[in-house]
């Protein structure tokens, strides 16, 4: 009996000391990047009602913090201009945590499915050279471990590491190439948080509150069939991999997803924009959200890929979003194009122009449908971002026009004053136009800087 009592008391003592220790979420570690010139929240756990100190070396200040009776604490600190390395020291009664080599710069969340998750180890173009030259110590990488949860969690598994030939190999290739361009142009530290999961639909990344407010999205979600790579349970990845990060200050998000929503393609714009809006609400920040339009691929459904691409185009109506077109970076028999360099570069150029105010004279978008006018039996289609509009083929193909009954017919197309003039013998009174709308349609219409026109169907 005495032995059992002694063991129980020992366990209680160990537990008491464990609870008394200052504990940080995993997103705070050595080698991390904090968002520059921002109000950044530091937070974690300690003994209930414990007072301890936090020291930040960039301003040489020590601040006292006290937990509540819930054992949680928070402290907002102002970060300086980009730079480092710095230290943050948490000192309590039982333990001390010293975070070293902390950089201040730009932090980007990188999410989506397999094309975002895809790493150099999964095979990319020019793989060996890219790995050998991936020595960028001011780029820091954090990979969120794959986790699902029924309810929003408070922490994730992972740790920050400097970008090196060893660490880059297992990280998102698109995110790496995005950061490499940013780091070159901005010459400041870049922090990347990779929380992608292959084969995931948008529903699993969307909080439950969205489905509660929009039951029609629940009905659309029922069309998503289970797969062997990831759960299709709505909100499960948001709860396990996004919710724990919403207190951590970020500069923006890049996203590469959509292939797994071809089963309910018609609802993608609404779902996607509600997801983005919900993330911003949780972060309390209307941060930029830049995403990749999915590439042509031989899906089972003839038009599913085209519908998603058009839905993604329409999602750009949401403020502070932008889309990188990639219909020229594809092979219709492989859903994972190996050219991740140009995808990351196009996202980076959008960020540099839209968010950082650089590349003012550089076009970063492919041609986007604007409107059409009628001229007898012809339609004249106007595009934005269309300087130097040209076709890579001998003929401009993949345009179709519709009649009053909504039936579609191939159209002859010609360029005139950087607009596309369409006609069809079968349609005397055309009422609508679409372009590259089949899942496997690889468009040939480009602007002067070599960016492809987006799939579209007119309103």
UniProtKB/TrEMBL annotation:
SUPFAM superfamilies: SGNH hydrolase. Residues 1-20 form the signal peptide. It comes from the Bacteria. Pfam families: SASA. Keywords: Hydrolase, Signal. InterPro entries: SASA, SGNH_hydro_sf, SIAE. The keyword Signal applies. Residues 106-348 form the Sialate O-acetylesterase domain. GO terms for biological process: carbohydrate metabolic process. GO terms for molecular function: sialate O-acetylesterase activity. This is Sialate O-acetylesterase. The lineage of its organism: Bacteria, Pseudomonadati, Bacteroidota, Flavobacteriia, Flavobacteriales.
């Amino acid at each position: 009996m005495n032995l059992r009592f002694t063991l129980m008391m020992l366990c209680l003592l160990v537990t008491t000391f464990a609870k008394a220790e200052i504990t940080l979420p995993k997103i705070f570690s050595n080698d991390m990047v904090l968002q520059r010139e921002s109000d950044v929240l530091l937070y974690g756990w300690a003994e209930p009602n414990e007072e301890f100190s936090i020291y930040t070396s960039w301003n040489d200040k020590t601040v006292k913090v006290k937990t509540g009776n819930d054992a949680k604490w928070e402290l907002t600190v102002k970060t300086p201009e980009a730079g480092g390395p710095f230290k943050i020291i948490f000192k309590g009664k039982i333990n001390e945590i010293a975070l070293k080599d902390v950089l201040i710069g730009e932090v980007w969340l990188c999410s989506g499915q397999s094309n975002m998750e895809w790493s150099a180890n999964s095979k990319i173009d020019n793989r060996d050279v890219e790995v050998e030259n991936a020595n960028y110590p001011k780029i820091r990488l954090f990979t969120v471990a794959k986790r699902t949860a029924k309810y929003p969690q408070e922490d994730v598994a992972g740790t920050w590491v400097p970008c090196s030939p060893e660490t880059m190999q297992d990280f998102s290739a698109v995110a790496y190439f995005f950061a490499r361009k940013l780091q070159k142009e901005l010459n400041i530290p870049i922090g990347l948080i990779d929380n992608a999961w292959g084969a995931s639909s948008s529903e699993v990344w969307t909080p439950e509150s969205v489905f509660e407010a929009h039951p029609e999205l629940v009905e659309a979600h029922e069309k998503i069939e289970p797969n062997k790579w990831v759960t299709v349970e709505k909100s499960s990845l948001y709860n396990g991999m996004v919710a724990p990060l919403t207190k951590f200050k970020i500069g923006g998000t890049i996203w590469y997803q959509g292939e797994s929503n071809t089963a309910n393609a018609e609802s993608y714009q609404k779902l996607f924009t509600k997801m983005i809006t919900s993330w911003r609400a949780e972060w309390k920040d209307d941060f930029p959200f830049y995403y990749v339009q999915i590439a042509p691929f031989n899906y089972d459904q003839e038009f599913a890929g085209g519908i998603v691409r058009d839905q993604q185009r329409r999602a750009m109506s949401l403020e502070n979003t932008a889309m990188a077109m990639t219909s020229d970076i594809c092979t219709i028999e492989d859903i994972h194009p190996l050219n991740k360099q140009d995808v990351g570069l196009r996202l980076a150029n959008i960020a540099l122009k839209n968010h950082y105010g650089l590349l003012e004279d550089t076009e970063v978008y492919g041609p986007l449908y604007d409107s059409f006018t009628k001229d007898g039996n012809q339609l004249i289609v106007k595009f934005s971002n269309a300087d130097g509009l040209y076709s890579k083929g001998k003929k401009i193909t993949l345009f179709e026009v519709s009649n009053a009954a909504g039936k579609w017919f191939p159209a002859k197309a010609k360029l005139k004053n950087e607009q596309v003039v369409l006609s069809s013998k079968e349609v005397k009174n055309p009422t609508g136009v679409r372009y590259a709308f089949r899942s496997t349609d690889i468009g040939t219409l480009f602007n002067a800087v070599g960016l492809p026109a987006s799939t579209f169907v007119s309103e």
